[in-house]
Design brief:
Radius of gyration: 16 Å
Mean pLDDT: 91
Number of strands: 9
Number of domains: 1
Number of helices: 8
Oligomer: single chain
Low-confidence stretches: none
Strand content: 15-25%
């Protein structure tokens, strides 16, 4: 399938070169779109420099930090205009290992949305303390129970969509902008009857830079989940 991988960035200059190197080493026919929110550390400029010698790498520049959900919505809409068959998303901080992409793409041959799942047998997390583990597992369990869906890892951000899914879930009306964006897109996919498959991955905590997780992001997710269930 004609595949695009979308990677939002904000101050990821410590991690982006290694991510691009790992994607190159896969030897796969896929394109990469870096969506940079005017990173003060020069991530956007670094991406442009790497793109000069890599025709499969493109950069979308945004004027400032507008949020994860906003970045994905803009990039998804661009990808649909470019007629990609498969559209993926992953983090820039090396928590999502590109080595899982071949297995995820194979799974997409018989699915509509593939999730890189930390909470299926064979998956897990590495280098997280107990509070972070509890927050992540608790958040996924909270969303799964309230929404009544079988997906184990609703909050993960390593995904591959078939284009028809993104065409049908009404991207312009998605309200989430933080990590609840992951919950909302998967929930909308399930509500429309599409097949969702989870592929186990081991999630490794970032090595460089700072986490984007904040209290505001957690609060948005807590409030958004019951709103999704009630259709508000």
């Amino acid at each position: 399938m004609n595949t695009l991988i979308i990677v939002p960035t904000y101050n990821e200059s410590d991690n982006l070169p290694e991510l691009v190197r790992r994607l190159e080493n896969l030897g796969m026919d896929l394109d990469l779109l870096i969506v940079d929110d005017n990173s003060p550390d020069g991530t956007g400029r670094m991406a442009e420099e790497m793109a000069l010698t890599r025709p499969w790498l493109r950069v979308m520049h945004r004027p400032g930090k507008k949020g994860l959900g906003s970045a994905y919505r803009e990039a998804f809409q661009m990808a649909l205009k470019q007629q990609y068959d498969a559209i993926g998303q992953m983090d820039a901080d090396l928590s999502h290992d590109p080595a899982y992409l071949p297995a995820m793409l194979r799974a997409l041959e018989s699915a509509d949305l593939v999730l890189g799942s930390r909470y299926r047998p064979g998956g897990g997390v590495r280098n997280w303390g107990l509070p972070r583990r509890a927050l992540s597992r608790g958040g996924s369990l909270y969303a799964r129970l309230l929404l009544g869906v079988p997906v184990r890892d609703l909050t993960g951000g390593f995904k591959l969509f078939r284009r028809q899914v993104l065409e049908s879930i009404e991207l312009d009306t998605i309200r989430s902008n933080g990590y609840s964006f992951q919950i909302e897109t998967t929930y909308r996919t399930l509500r429309r009857g599409y097949r969702v498959v989870e592929v186990p991955i081991v999630f490794e905590d970032r090595r460089g830079g700072r986490s984007k997780l904040s209290r505001a992001v957690v609060l948005e997710a807590m409030v958004m989940v019951p709103r999704l269930r009630l259709g508000l």
